[in-house]
């Protein structure tokens, strides 16, 4: 992959000490009859080696586009631009968007692996789970005996009976078992990064929590970096080290999960916290976010959130805010973030201090 080597590490205010992935000005557009649909808009972020980054936002905000972009997996006719650099533990950095198809296949499984949204239905119903593992090991010329041993270890780490799993057909498994089998499959070629797009959305709350707990242990045991994508802020915030909040196809707030939960500084993040079910607040205090998120074909001028924002004024209609530093590990894109807590009060967390 020598041609794809990148030698410089651009420094930004969001730069990590030891990045495993850097994303610079990533955009995705679809050219449609009604105009150009911009479904990821100039996104820049660093992902730190070993961290769990939670990416949250409403449905349609561009979460899956961001996940797909990380692996150059945006479907045709989507056009992905920008720069995505992967820094393997050993060797030179790799420019993901310049890879040949065979190189990309290798990177996708052996370095950065992904559990796609709705992927549970991706199992072939005529093949056992074990055959799925063998197929993947074969396709990458990995030793089958060693690979299946690793599969067994992964199954037991995920609290599944290894022999039974390998000989089962997909329809013989529950949703939670299938999801864990997929996680095991995504880790079979020892990737460093696992990107998970709504991995637990189809499961009940108890099963979601139990899978998150298992992922927590697996992350440490296998030295993984996790990118966890979800619309469910409370679920992600209990699990992620850092949160990146997407609104209308761009990040509006990025920071330590605890800090964002306790002191969310973007009116949208605060509205999101208020709109999601939470055992600590009463039903009366829960509020859906009023208004609709923008159409990707006609992004509003200025701040994309201004049509729904209680703080929005004339400035916000023309002037798109840059990131402001809330703390060394917390940034927000809002002209008036210092007043966000008054404008969108929360009945729990930071505002009760
Ligand atoms: N193939 C496509 N062609 C054109 N537009 C698309 C295509 N796929 C997705 N989009 C649009 O891209 C935008 C972002 O979609 P994306 O799937 O990333 O959202 P999301 O935040 O993951 O939503 P959800 O939580 O519902 O999955 C949406 O407006 C969607 O309609």
TrEMBL record:
It is found in: Cell membrane. GO terms for cellular component: plasma membrane. InterPro entries: AAA+_ATPase, ABC_Ni/Peptide_Import, ABC_transporter-like_ATP-bd, ABC_transporter-like_CS, Oligopep_ABC_C, P-loop_NTPase. Residues 23-273 form the ABC transporter domain. GO terms for biological process: peptide transport. SUPFAM superfamilies: P-loop containing nucleoside triphosphate hydrolases (SSF52540). Pfam families: ABC_tran, oligo_HPY. One of its GO terms (molecular function) is ATP binding. CDD domains: ABC_NikE_OppD_transporters (cd03257). Keywords: ATP-binding, Cell inner membrane, Cell membrane, Membrane, Nucleotide-binding, Translocase, Transport. Its main location: membrane. It is a peripheral membrane protein. NCBIfam families: oligo_HPY. This is ABC transporter ATP-binding protein. It comes from Natrialba swarupiae. The lineage of its organism: Archaea, Methanobacteriati, Methanobacteriota, Stenosarchaea group, Halobacteria.
């Amino acid at each position: 992959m020598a041609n794809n080597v990148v030698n410089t590490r651009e420094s930004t205010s969001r730069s990590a000490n030891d990045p495993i992935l850097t994303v610079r000005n990533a955009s995705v557009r679809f050219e449609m009859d009604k105009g150009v649909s911009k479904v990821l808009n100039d996104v820049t972020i660093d992902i730190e080696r070993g961290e769990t980054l939670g990416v949250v936002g409403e449905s349609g905000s561009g979460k899956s586009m961001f996940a797909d972009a990380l692996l150059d997996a945006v479907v045709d006719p989507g056009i992905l631009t920008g720069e995505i650099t992967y820094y393997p533990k050993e060797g030179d950095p790799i420019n993901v968007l310049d890879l040949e198809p065979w190189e990309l296949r290798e990177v996708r499984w052996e370095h950065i692996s992904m559990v796609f949204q709705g992927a549970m239905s991706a199992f072939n119903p005529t093949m056992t789970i074990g055959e799925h593992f063998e197929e993947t090991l074969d396709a990458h010329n990995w030793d089958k005996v060693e690979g299946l041993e690793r599969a067994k270890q992964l199954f037991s780490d995920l609290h599944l009976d290894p022999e039974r799993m390998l000989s089962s057909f997909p329809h013989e498994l529950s949703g939670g078992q299938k999801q864990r089998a997929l996680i095991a499959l995504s880790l079979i070629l020892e990737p460093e990064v696992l990107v998970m797009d709504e991995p637990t959305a189809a499961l009940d709350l108890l099963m979601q929590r139990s899978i998150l707990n298992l992922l927590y242990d697996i992350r440490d045991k296998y030295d993984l970096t996790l990118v966890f994508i979800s619309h469910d802020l409370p679920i992600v915030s209990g699990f992620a080290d850092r949160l990146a909040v997407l609104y209308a196809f761009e990040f509006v707030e990025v920071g330590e999960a605890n800090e964002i939960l306790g002191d969310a500084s973007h009116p949208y993040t605060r509205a999101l916290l208020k709109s999601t079910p939470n055992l600590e607040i009463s039903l009366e205090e829960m509020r859906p976010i009023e208004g609709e998120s923008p159409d990707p074909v006609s992004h509003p001028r200025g701040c994309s959130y201004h049509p729904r924002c209680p703080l929005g004024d004339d400035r916000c209609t023309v002037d798109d805010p840059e990131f402001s530093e809330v703390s060394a590990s917390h940034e927000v894109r809002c002209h008036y973030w210092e007043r966000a807590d008054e404008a969108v009060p929360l009945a729990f967390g930071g505002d009760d201090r």
